[in-house]
UniProtKB/TrEMBL annotation:
Presence of the UniProt keyword Flavoprotein in the record: yes
PANTHER family: GLYCOLATE OXIDASE SUBUNIT GLCD
Record Pfam families: FAD-oxidase_C, FAD_binding_4
Designated name of the protein: FAD-linked oxidase C-terminal domain-containing protein
Tree of life domain: Bacteria
Keywords recorded for this protein, A-Z: FAD, Flavoprotein, Oxidoreductase
InterPro entries referenced in this protein's UniProt entry, alphabetically: FAD-bd_oxidored_4_C (IPR004113), FAD-bd_PCMH (IPR016166), FAD-bd_PCMH-like_sf (IPR036318), FAD-bd_PCMH_sub2 (IPR016169), FAD-linked_Oxase-like_C (IPR016164), FAD-linked_OxidoTrans_Type4 (IPR051914), Oxid_FAD_bind_N (IPR006094), Vanillyl_alc_oxidase_C-sub2 (IPR016171)
Cofactor(s) demanded: FAD
Organism of derivation: Kiloniella antarctica
Domain FAD-binding PCMH-type: 48-226
Residue ranges that the Swiss-Prot or TrEMBL entry lists as coiled coil: none
Length: 495
């Protein structure tokens, strides 16, 4: 994976840049020692590592604005970072970029039950938002498996999803407003406590912008009353085809479960060995279907889903009898990533999304690829959304095995696009899928997307090397005036 070549003149100015930033963020807010920077050198995509030029930890919007204004004037690149759990390398540092760490933005600013929303700083964890309101019977619906650690700012930047997003929507559907700082230091607000706003949907544009358009400094999200009741079904199938058919049948009956997740045999076995959730080990596919809402509705829907499962060929079926059992059904699924981590020194998690009815075909082709590459793969997926998370198992200590895992992963994502799906469901493009973007978008599409980037960050200083396989000069995209034949920003890298 090729990243932009570091700007030697910036590397040479490291001490000077640190001194200048210390004037903005005094005390321990600027980290420059190589030992302390080690903790920042990768995010959740640990296959790639790079210490940043330095790390800076601002505490308020004013400081973020001054840092960005300084970087804009001096041509210093900036990589924003929340909790560093990105699985696509979105927060991977660059040698010549400062890492802007938002962890100190950790306050809940306002809980407004009348308007059913919370205003929080971007470094608050996803679960922290729920924790602050659950005593009053409320919660924040999008629930990435990393929710104990990932920040809401990172969720906005990646448009994060989770088990309950099938029914309640992704981050974008639960976001009401943000405060954001542009690279020149301008502070903007999009949305608020109200629904929708006049003009372009800039809030939608910022959601999923992967730190390339601005830095989020405040977030307003919807909070929902907790459903009266929730029960889960654990359904085992002899083949993934039958499991996939059951998913399609449930949706086509007009039932939208609170969550609908599937695991294949390697994932079931890994999860069961890890948490003893009581999963059947002799099935090829396991489906967890959760129904939530008023008691009478849930009881009725449990019956209907049980019937559909029987007709779809379920060979085992269990209904959670109490809250403890429901949590146990989920415990295996939620621990599936670390469970697979016990089987292999390293794994590479993919995130393609496919039309639901292509699931059996894609699983079959994945098994063939697994044999071709000689690498194991375990599958967990948000079945209702068609969002796959194949976990490719490899050992980075074996020369060439990381590259083999990457090629295998690329083949899976190409397959997702080939069957009518997309490269990413919720983890973002980052560096991981950057070079596959042309598989999905034409050159014209990509140039149009880059024009949006240029409108916000013409010098390409915010998170360069991520998302776009090539950084065109904004001038080439018709955004800039070329004066006397001289290109502005001749140093913008192409890689
Ligand atoms: C075990 C595990 C399970 C996971 N499960 C899920 C899952 O179920 N669903 C899911 O969607 N994801 C999942 N993820 C991926 C990850 O947790 C999400 O992408 C999350 O949204 C990243 O948040 P973060 O705070 O860690 O952001 P980071 O990793 O720090 O950053 C991610 C991106 O956001 C940008 N960014 C961060 N903060 C800001 C800000 N304040 N302003 C502007 N840009 C910013 C960064 O530049 C980067 O591009 C999982 C990760 C792990 C390790």
């Amino acid at each position: 994976m090729k990243m932009p070549d570091p700007d030697q003149s910036i590397l040479a100015r490291r001490e000077e840049i640190a001194d200048r930033l210390r004037l903005i963020v005094p005390g321990e807010g600027v980290i420059i020692s190589s030992q302390e920077l080690q903790v920042y050198e990768s995010d959740g995509l640990t296959a790639y590592r790079q210490p940043p030029l330095l790390a800076v930890l601002p505490e308020n919007t004013q400081q973020v604005s001054e840092i960005l204004k300084y970087c804009h004037t001096e041509g210093v690149k900036v990589v924003p970072r929340g909790s560093g759990t990105s699985l696509s390398g979105g927060a991977l540092p660059l040698a010549d970029a400062i890492l802007l760490c938002m962890g100190k933005f950790n306050q809940i600013l306002d809980v407004d039950y009348d308007n059913r929303c919370s205003v929080v700083q971007p470094g608050v964890t996803n679960l922290g938002i729920t924790k602050a309101v659950e005593g009053d019977g409320f919660y924040y619906a999008p629930d990435p498996s990393s929710q104990i650690a990932c920040s809401i700012g990172g969720n906005v930047a990646e448009n994060a999803g989770g088990v309950h997003c099938l029914k309640y929507g992704l981050t974008t559907n639960n976001l009401l407003g943000i405060e954001m700082v542009l690279i020149d230091g301008t502070v903007l607000r999009f949305g608020g406590k109200h629904f929708d706003g006049a003009g372009y949907d800039l809030l939608g544009l910022m959601t999923g912008s992967e730190g390339l358009l601005g830095v989020v400094t405040e977030v307003t999200v919807r909070i929902l009353p907790k459903p009266e009741t929730a029960r889960a079904l654990l359904l085992g199938f002899s083949t993934s085809e039958e499991g996939g058919a059951c998913v399609a049948a449930i949706i086509s009956e007009g039932i939208i479960p609170g969550g609908m997740e599937m695991m294949d045999k390697p994932a079931i076995q890994a999860a069961e060995a890890f948490v003893n959730a009581g999963y059947p080990l002799d099935v090829d596919a396991l489906l967890i279907v959760e129904l939530d809402g008023p008691q009478a509705e849930v009881d009725y829907l449990i019956e209907r889903v049980s019937d559909i499962a029987k007709k779809s060929g379920a060979v085992t079926s269990r209904i959670s009898q109490n809250e403890e059992e429901r949590q146990l059904f989920w415990a295996g699924r939620k621990a599936a990533f670390p469970a697979v981590g016990r089987l292999t020194p390293d794994y590479y998690c993919m995130d393609g999304t496919i039309p639901r009815n292509k699931l059996p075909l894609v699983l079959k082709r994945m098994r063939e690829m697994s044999a071709h590459y000689g690498l194991g793969v375990a599958n967990v997926f948000h079945a209702g959304d068609g969002n796959l998370h194949p976990l490719i198992m490899y050992d980075a200590n074996n020369p060439g095995e990381l590259e083999k895992a990457e090629d295998f992963g690329s083949d899976i994502l190409r397959l997702c696009v080939e069957v009518g799906g997309v490269l990413t469901g919720e983890h973002g493009v980052g560096v991981e899928k950057r070079d596959l973007m042309p598989e999905m978008f034409t050159d014209v599409d990509l140039k149009q997307q880059l024009r949006v980037k240029c409108a916000f960050d013409a010098k390409a200083l915010l998170n360069p090397g991520k998302v776009f396989p090539e950084l065109h000069r904004c001038a080439e995209l018709g955004r800039m005036h070329i004066h006397k034949g001289k290109l502005p920003f001749p140093d913008i890298p192409r890689f």
